[in-house]
Sequence to fold (930 residues):
Amino acid sequence: MPKKLIIDGTEIEVEDGLTLIQACEQAGAEVPRFCYHERLSIAGNCRMCLVEVVGMPKPQASCALGVNDLPPNKDGSPKVIFTKSPMVKKAREGVMEFLLINHPLDCPICDQGGECDLQDQAMAFGIGASRYTENKRAIEEKNLGPLIKTMMTRCIQCTRCVRFMTEVAGVEELGAIGRGEDMEITTYLEKGMMSELSANVVDICPVGALTHRPWAFSARPWEMDKTESIDVMDALGSNIVVHTRGREVMRVLPRNNDAVNEEWISDKTRHVADGLRTQRLDQPYIRVGGKLKPATWDEALALIGSKLKAADPKKIGAIVGDLAGAEEMFALKELFTRLGSPNIDCRQDGAKLDPTEGRASYIFNSTIAGIDQADAIMLIGTNPRLEAPVLNARIRKRWRQGGLLVGVIGEKADLGYEYNYLGTGADALAKFVGHAPANKERPMFILGAGTLARPDGAAVLATAVKAAQSLGCIKDSWNGFNILQTAASRVAGLDLGLVPAAGGRGVAEMLSGGMELVYLLGADEFDTSILGRTFVVYQGSHGDNGAHIADVVLPGSAYTEKSATYVNTEGRAQMTMKAAFAPGVAKEDWSILRALSTHAGQTLPYDNLTALRAAMYKVAPQLARLGSVASADAADLGKLAGLPGTMTQAPFVNTVRDFYLTNPIARASTIMGELSALAANLKPTTRAAAE
Amino acid sequence: MSVRRLHPEQPKNFAFTPENEAWAAATIAKYPPGKQASAVIPLLMRAQEQHKNWLPEPAIRHVAEKLGMAYIRVYEVATFYTQFQLGPVGTTAHVQVCGTTPCMLRGAEGLKDVCRKKIHTDQFHLSADGAFSWEEVECAGTCANAPMVQIFADTYEDLTPELLEKVIDGYARGTPPKPGSQIGRKASSPAGGFTALTDPALYDGSTLGGWQHRLAEIDAKSALTAAASASATAPEKKP
Fold:
C-alpha cells in the first residue's frame, strides 16, 4: 500500500518497502551518505544520513529505516520528515566531526581529491574547524593486490568495499577486523584479493582509502576530459567514460546502464588503458627483404591496391578481428564484394554461426537484464566469470535473491555461486533433448562461444536449441536461448553478413592455404604463422600476432580513438566516441578502407562517416537504433533445431583461457601482464589463497 | 582497549580433540540447516580453552572450515570479541582485572598495581616463568562485589591488594582460594550485615499463618460490635 509522507513540506506518496533515504530522494531532498549504496546491502554505520522524523525523539538513520516501519501518527496523518531542520544540521555536523577525528588532512596528496565524497560533504555539511587536538590514529597499508592502492588511515569504515566483494563480486576475502577505533579493512592474513571485478571497490570507496594503483599520482579529475564510450574487452558492451588528458587516455571508469553493466566494469575494461600507449602501430610499414620498413600511406595503399587488382578475386580474402567496429566491417565487406571476392569472415575463432539462420541464433535473446527474471540457468561450455565478469555478477545477484537453479555443462570453475554439475560435454547436453519441460517459469540456456568454435559447432548449436525447446526455454513470452559471445565485433559482423558468400572460403579454408592475399582487419587470435607465404595485409592498432607476419601494415585506431558502432552480445547497438587521437599518422579504420578502395579501383561511395552509416543502416537497420535491443524472431531457432549433424564426444572447452590477455590491447598492457602472471600463481578461491 | 592482532608466533596446525569434536558437532546441530555459522563463537571459545586458553590462527581456519565460512569472517569475529585471547596467556592463571567505573571507584587501580608488581609491568605479557599474565577488562558484571578479578571461569570479589596477592599466591602454589567474595560474605549480601528484616521471628516460623490470626481477630471484633449495637437498640422497640 503506498504510503503518504511529508518530506520538507512536500507531500509525496511512496511505494511499500522503500527506505526513508529513497523516499527523500524521490521527494527531491538531498541526503548525504557514505555507507549507503543502492546496489549493496544496508549497513547503517556511517550515520551521515540522519533525518528528523516528527514524533521520534532522536534523529533517524534514513538508509536503515523503512517507510513501512515508521510508527503511524495517532490521528492517521502522514508522517512529517525534515532533512534540513536545525536538528538534522546539528546531527550531521556532529557525525562529520566524528568521521574527521581520525581522517588525515592530506587532501593535497590524495588521489581521491576532487572526486571525494568526504571532501564534498565536509564542505557541504560539516563545521569549518575541528575541536580535536589529540593525535590521530594511523593504520598500516594493506595489500589488496596490484590494482588497489590503500591508505587505510583515510578509511572511515563504511564497509562498502567489504559488502561489494562479498555480495557482488562473490569473493569473500575482504573483511573488517578489530572493533571501534581500531577497526581495519583487510584480507585474511593480507594475502591480497583476486577477482575480475576488484577495482570497482575503488569507485565505491567514498574516501581516498582505496585508490587505483596504476593511476596513482598521474592526473587530477578536473584536468581530464570525459568522453562517454563503450567497452570492447568483452562482448557485453559495458558503458564507460574515457578520461583523457591531452591525447593520452588516463583512465577508464564505468558509466551507469542498468540494462547492461549496472555500474560495474571488469578490471580488464578499466586497466587496459596503458595498453593503448604501448606496441602501437603509428605509421604504415611495408616488408622489404623480410623486414618491415616504414612507408608512407600512399606507398602502402598503392602496393595493396596493385596486389588486389592483380589477384584472382577468388584467391583474396579478409578476416575480421574481435575489436572491429561495424563501420569498418561494413566498408571491408563492400570493398571485397566490389572486388568480386566471396571470401570474408568475421568469425576468426571459427564459430559455426550463420546470419542466414536468423538473428536469434547468435545473440543473447533474453537480454542481460533478463537474467534478473530467470529462475533456472544452464551454462554450457562457458565460464561467464572470465568471459563476461559483469554478466556473471548479474547471475550472482539473481542467485542471491534465491530460487535460481544453475546447471553447468563443460568445465568446472569457481563461479561465485552454487551450481549443479551436469557433465563435461555433448552427451550431457544431448540428454536434455526430449527431456520433460523444466518446472520453471523462465529457464535460460547460456551457450559459450567455445562450444560453437568446435568443428561440430553447428551440431552443438542445433542440439542446444532442441534441448532448450524440450526444457521450455523458448516460449511465446520468453526466449531464454542465449549465446554468450566473447568478441565485441561478432554480433555486428554477423548482422552485416560478414561470412563467406556462396562458394567462398571461411577462416579455416583461408588459413589452409592457396590464397594470394589475406586482409586481416585486426585479426590476431589465431596461429598467424600458418599464413606462410601468402601476401598478408594487417590493418589494426597494435603490433601483435597479425602485424608480425604482415607484408603491409596499416595503422588503425583503437576503440577509444574512433567513433564506431559495436553491437553487444544481446544485440544492443551502441556507439563509441572519439576520446583521443590515434598515434602518429594512424587513421580511423573506415577511412583507411575508403582510401584503399580508390587504389584498388573500386571506390566506395562515401566520403564521411555519416554517409557510410546511412548506407550501413540500409543493410542492417537495427544498428541505427542505438542503445536499444532489436529483438530477434524466436521462430528462427525452430528452423535451427532441424539442422543435421552429429556431435563429437570431446568435452566443452571455454574460450577464455587467460582472462587478462584476450586481445592485442590487453597483451600490450603491462598491468594486464602482471595480473595474468599473478592469477596463474594465485588460485582465486578463498581457501586456497589463505594457505 | 588495545589493537587486537594475531600473535606473530603461531602453531603449525590445530584440530579439536575427539571429545571437543563431538561437542562441536552437537553444538552445530543446535542450529537449523544453513545457519551453522551461528556456532562460531562457542566453537572459537572451545578452541581457545583447548589451546592453553588462547586462540591460535590455525584454530580460526579450523573453525571456518568446520562451519563452511570464509576465513575472513571468522577472523573478524575472533578479533572483535575481547573474550578471545589472540596471544599466549599465563599457563596457571590469566588475571582479568575489571577496571570499569564501580570497580575503579572501589580500588581497581590497586589491584592493577599488584598485577604490575607480581606478574608484569604491562598487561598481555607473561610473567618471567610464563605462569601468569594479566589484562584490564571492561565490566564483568559483579559490580556489587567490586573490585573483582576474573581468572578463567572463576571470579574473585571484594578484593583488596592484599587479598589479590593471596589469590595469586594461591594459584602459584596450586591451591587457589574458593571463588567468590574473599571477605566471607555470601554472594552480594551487604558487607556490614543486614539492616532490614532483622527480626528473628521472621525466620523461626512463628509468624507463619499470622494473617489467619489477624483475620480471626477482625471477625471477632466485628461480631462484638454488632452484638453491642443490637443490645443498645432492642429496648426502644415496642411491640
User: Anything to note?
Assistant: Chain B has a mean pLDDT of 91. The helical segments of chain B are 18-28, 40-50, 57-67, 71-80, 101-105, 108-118, 161-173, 210-233.
